[in-house]
Fold these 2 entries.
Entry 1:
Amino acid sequence: MYEYLDKLQPVILAGGEDSGVGYNGKALVEFEGGTLLETIHTILNFTFDKSPIVVTDDKKQLSALPAAKDMFIVEEAYKGAQTLGAVATAFQYTDAENIFVIGVNMPFISIPMINKMAYHIQMADVVVPVQDGTDICLHAVYNRRVLPLMREKIDEGEHLLHSFFPQIDLVQVAVRKDKEEDAIFFNVHSTDDLKAAEEKYEELRRKEPEVFVPVAEAAK
C-alpha cells in the first residue's frame, strides 16, 4: 500500500529541553503509557523497514530509559547547531539516500503523507508538508545531496533547517484536512498541549485509524 517507504531511513530528533511540560527533555514526556520518544519510535519501527535513528544532545539521559536498549541512539556531532546539526548527524549514521525526519514532540504521524513525500523526493532535494502557505521542516524528507550545503551552513553559524531551503529544489506537499493530515503540525510544548494531544490521539484512534497508526496496534 505504501510502496515508497522501503528506502527511507526514519530519524527522530530527540534533543533539547522543554520545561513547559515539566521534564528535563522533550523525549521523556509521558504519553500513551510510555514517553513521547517511545511512542514515536514504536510507530516508526512498525512502519519502516529500517530501524529509527534517534539523534539527541544528551545520549546518556536517553540511554537511561528502559526502552532505550532497543533503540539506536546517537549524539549530535555538531554541538549548538540544533535541528540543522541533528539532521546532518543522522546522515552520518546511515547509507540511505533519503531520510524522514520528525521531532520527538510531534506525536501525530501521517503514513500516507510520508509516502507521498517519499514519492516526490525522487525529483527533489527536500520535501515538506505545507498548510495555508506555511511549511514545516520536520515531518519532512531530506536527500543526502543537501548534506554538503548543510555542513556549509553550520560552518557559517546557522542552526535552522530553513536556512538552506532557498538554495535547493524544494517540493511542498499540501496536507489534506479532510484526512486529519493537518494534525502533523501539532507540537507538544506545554501541559495544555500534552492534554490536547492525548485527547486528539483518542479521537483519531476512533476516526482515522488508517491515517495515524495507533501505538497499541503498532506494538502488537
Entry 2:
Amino acid sequence: MSAHQYDHGHTFAGWVGCAIGSVAAGVAGAGVVVVSGLLIAGGMAIGVVALLVTWALHLSGWGKGPGLRPREEWGWRVRDSSAPGGHDECLGCRLAGRRPVHAAGVVPVRAGGETEAAAAVGADSVR
C-alpha cells in the first residue's frame, strides 16, 4: 500500500529514470559551465540511456500505464499486472508493438471525445 491518497504513478521505473535523467542533466550542465562539447554530448547520451532504461522497466512491469491503477498496485515496489498485454493509450506499449486485447475482438475508439465500440478490423482507421 502506498502512503499517498492519490495514484501519482510513483513507480520503480519512474524513480530509476528520474535518477539517471538527473545525472544526465548534471553532466550536460557541467559541460555548459566548462564549455565542453564532450560533456554536453555525454549528458545527452546519458539522457537517452535514461529514456531507454525507463522504457524497458515500464515494459517489464515496473512502470504504469495512463490512468488509475487498482489501489493495491499503488506502491512503487509493486509490479504492474497489466504490462505484458500492453496499456490502453500508452505510447511506450504501442512503440513496443503491444496492443491490449479486448473482449470479443472489440476495440474502443475515441472520436470527438466520445467512446464507442468498433470492430477490431478497421479500428485503427480515422473517421
